[in-house]
Design a protein that fits this description.
The protein has about 350 residues and is of the alpha/beta class. It has a single domain (about 35-135, about 180-355), classed as CoaB-like (Rossmann fold). The protein is built from ten helices and 14 strands. The protein has helices at about 15, 40-50, 55-70, 105-115, 165-180, 190-205, 255-260, 280-290, 325, 335-355, and strands at about 80-85, 90, 95-100, 120-125, 150, 155-160, 185-190, 210-215, 225, 250, 265-275, 295-300, 305-310, 315-320. Strands 7-4-1-8-11-12-13-14 form an eight-stranded mixed beta sheet, with helices on both faces. The chain has a two-stranded antiparallel ribbon with strand order 2-3. A two-stranded antiparallel ribbon has the order 5-6. Helix 3 runs parallel beside helix 6 (about 190-205) and helix 4 packs across helix 10. The two termini are about 40 Å apart.
Length: about 350
């Protein structure tokens, strides 16, 4: 969200060149194999019966219900934005875990644009991943201290004059969201925590019906280790003979349960990330058909910050930043979110015409 031509803090030559999170796209695996089927009610019952809910879930339930009721009274629409990746612990007292590729950039950025368009936002995010507003100064190659300077008398810390205008804009937006109770932060770390919390929030949001939108930008693990097979303490290398063989189970595809049962009249937007452009559209269309929701946003790992494709029952439509927008560091989410809001408004009107 940086303004065109806004200054950036000095960085070391090494940090400005090296990005360790960038994958080797030449070695991407074949993603043409079929996906797991959508979860059934029996899958849902078994999963939530056999796994223990997070101990803090009742507190989240109370906070979410209060937040939703507050905005329901003033007829404000609410977006649930999921963000960041889930982990799969390999021990109960977790030392080792399998992680998921996601820093939460898309989710945190999108949440800001939903807030700017008048929505309240429940931000279901990976703990310590990017957050709305603070994302401008975290998870970057720049140290936050680069934005600061000493006062002339050397007794105070001040924002460097070069960055004051930009930081003031972000600060005002953040304070407005806080003072008007527009943003509720809900954390998760593991895939189990994410799924239990998603179901809870979806059921709490049922009171606002089609005024709810689900923007599912989190990277959810495809596999997990069932509770019955997780050791209590750290796995000792001598006990496994120097090798660790992990037998993972597929995570049930609960998106269909969200569509059919947890939030049946809300608008639901999911994302499909691929590395192979030849299968992106077909994978997104397959997901749309399998889960029967309103919109799949397809994006390639290599170009996800510059272009995405909207896949609906009516067809496909690409959204791309032009060269000037790329040069000016325009967030593609600043285009994605207003497009989705237009679709949400149309969805609401269609529900009203149908008497739902």
């Amino acid at each position: 969200m940086s303004e065109p031509g806004s200054p950036v803090p000095p960085t070391s030559p090494l940090l400005s060149r090296v990005h360790t999170s960038a994958p080797d796209t030449e070695s991407a695996i074949d993603r043409s194999i079929p996906e797991f089927p959508a979860a059934t009610p029996i899958d849902e019952d078994n999963y939530f019966r056999l796994h223990r809910p997070p101990p803090y879930l009742s507190q989240i339930s109370s906070d979410v219900a209060e937040f939703i009721n507050f905005h329901h009274r003033v007829n404000r629409k609410v977006a649930l934005v999921t963000s960041g990746g889930t982990t799969v612990p390999l021990e109960n007292n977790t030392v080792r875990f399998i992680d998921n590729f996601s820093a939460g950039t898309r989710g945190a950025t999108s949440a800001e644009y939903f807030l700017e368009k008048g929505y309240a936002v429940i931000f279901l995010h990976r703990e310590f991943s990017m957050l709305p507003y603070s994302r401008h100064y975290s998870h970057t190659t720049n140290c936050f201290l680069d934005y600061l300077t000493e006062s002339p008398d050397g007794k105070k810390v001040e924002v460097d004059e070069k960055f004051q205008k930009e930081m003031l804009v972000v600060l005002k937006k953040y304070r407005y969201a806080q003072e008007n109770n527009l943003l509720l932060m809900v954390p998760f770390t593991t895939v189990h925590q994410y799924l239990f919390t998603l179901k809870l929030i979806a059921q709490e949001m049922s009171v606002i019906g089609y005024d709810a939108i689900f923007y599912l930008a989190a990277a959810v693990s495809d596999f997990f280790l069932p509770s019955s097979r997780i050791p209590q303490h750290k796995i000792q290398s001598k006990e496994v003979g120097g090798k660790l063989v992990v037998d993972l189970e597929p995570v049930p595809k609960f998106l269909r349960r969200l569509v059919d049962s947890w939030a049946p009249i809300a608008m639901i937007v999911s994302f499909k990330l691929e590395t192979d452009n030849t299968i992106l559209i077909s994978k997104a269309r397959t997901a749309l058909k399998r889960y029967n929701h309103q919109l799949v946003i397809g994006n390639l790992l290599q170009t996800r910050k510059k272009q995405v494709v909207f896949v609906t029952a009516e067809g496909e439509r690409w959204i791309k930043l032009d060269p000037e927008q790329i040069k000016e560091n325009v967030d593609i989410e600043s285009i994605i979110v207003p497009e989705i809001i237009n679709s949400h408004n149309a969805w609401i009107e269609s529900r009203k015409r149908m008497g739902l």
